[in-house]
């Protein structure tokens, strides 16, 4: 008991110190409760300052939006594929007209000629034509005679059938090695043969320039006889095996088939949500509705 009591024994100076500390604590508490520390001052801005700030904010947003825009690269419209045409906003019929024109071994040499061949409207042409890049051989008047000689020379070349070419034939093309030649043949087998020359551009790892080199020597002469699958009787695995279909798209086709009970025409596939219209001509080569 005496041990505990010793902790509470203070001399006069210590007691004064304790009372003084308590006084300070009580005084500060009273100040906290009765004194308003909030500021009534309001910051005001003039209209000029606000407008200046808004302009700076708008300019920063414009710079940010400009940086986010994808870069647009020029391209030769003669080599527009189904997918590229779809991205540009061209219709299926307009793309088909261009592809049919190219099959005649002719080239589009101007914006006006492109519109004449494809039939695209003026509004779409005004958007996509600035991206067109024709070869200097076409755009330079000085080279007109040289261009004509080149076209005659190219037409005089007898191209081989790409569907009957062997690996050894492809290796002879500049830029093609054994691996790429084998890859072309394997892809051709999956397709059951090339139906369009442009399908060569789909071969994995084959760059556009090398593909053009191949098409300078080979072309589709005899279209293959493709064994079509009846979409109403086919199994999921059979449809999924088609090169142009992935799991999600195959699943959508089967869900649509279940909804309508029976697909009357392959054109009905276009009604499926998010169906890749640019691939329809390719997919239609392998499917039929009976």
Briefly, what is this?
The protein has 290 residues and is mostly helical. The protein has 15 helices and four strands. The strands form two sheets. A two-stranded parallel sheet has the order 1-2.
Outline the structure in words:
The chain is an all-alpha fold. Among the domains are: 77-156, no CATH class; 160-219, Orthogonal Bundle (DNA polymerase, domain 1), CATH 1.10.150; 229-288, Orthogonal Bundle (DNA polymerase, domain 1). The protein is 52% helix and 3% strand. The protein is built from 15 helices and four strands. The protein has helices at 2-5, 12-34, 47-68, 82-88, 92-103, 111-118, 122-128, 136-139, 144-156, 167-171, 178-191, 208-215, 236-240, 247-260, 280-283, and strands spanning 160-161, 218-219, 229-230, 287-288. The strands form two sheets. Strands 1-2 form a two-stranded parallel ribbon. A two-stranded parallel ribbon has the order 3-4. The mean pLDDT is 82.
Dominant shape? elongated
Q: Tally the helices: what do you get?
A: 15
Largest sheet: 2 strands, parallel
Q: Spatial order of the strands in the main sheet? A: 1-2
**Nearest-angstrom radius of gyration?**
38 Å
Q: Span between N and C termini?
A: 106 Å
Mean pLDDT: 82
Please indicate the percent range of residues in DSSP E strands (runs of 2 or more): under 5%
**Level of helix content?**
40-55%
Structural class: mainly alpha
Q: How many beta-strand segments?
A: 4
What is the chain-wise order of helices and strands?
HHHHHHHHHEHHHEEHHHE
What's the quaternary structure here? single chain
Spans of at least 5 consecutive residues whose pLDDT stays below 50 are none
């Amino acid at each position: 008991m005496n041990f505990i009591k010793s902790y509470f024994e203070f001399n006069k100076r210590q007691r004064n110190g304790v009372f003084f500390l308590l006084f300070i604590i009580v005084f500060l508490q009273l100040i906290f409760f009765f004194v308003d520390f909030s500021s009534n001052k309001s910051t005001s801005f003039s209209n000029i300052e606000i407008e200046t700030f808004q302009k700076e904010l708008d300019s920063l947003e414009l710079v940010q939006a400009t940086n986010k825009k994808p870069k647009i690269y020029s391209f030769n419209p003669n080599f527009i594929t189904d997918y590229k045409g779809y991205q540009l906003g061209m219709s299926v019929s307009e793309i088909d007209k261009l592809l049919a024109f190219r099959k005649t071994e002719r080239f589009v040499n101007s914006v006006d000629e492109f519109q004449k061949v494809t039939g695209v409207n003026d509004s779409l042409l005004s958007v996509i034509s600035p991206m067109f890049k024709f070869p200097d051989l076409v755009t330079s008047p000085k080279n007109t005679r040289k261009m004509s000689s080149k076209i005659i020379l190219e037409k005089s070349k007898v191209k081989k059938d790409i569907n009957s070419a062997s690996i050894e034939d492809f290796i002879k093309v500049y830029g093609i090695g054994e691996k790429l030649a084998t890859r072309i043949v394997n892809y051709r087998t999956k397709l059951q043969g090339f139906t369009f020359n442009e399908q060569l551009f789909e071969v994995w790892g084959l760059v556009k320039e090398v593909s053009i080199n191949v098409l300078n020597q080979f072309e589709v002469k005899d279209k293959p006889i493709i064994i079509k699958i009846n979409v109403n009787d086919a199994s999921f695995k059979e449809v999924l095996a088609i090169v142009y279909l992935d799991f999600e798209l195959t699943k959508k086709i089967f869900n649509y088939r279940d909804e309508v009970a029976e697909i009357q025409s392959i054109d009905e596939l276009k009604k499926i949500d998010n169906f890749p219209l640019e691939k329809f001509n390719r997919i239609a080569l392998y499917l039929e509705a009976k």
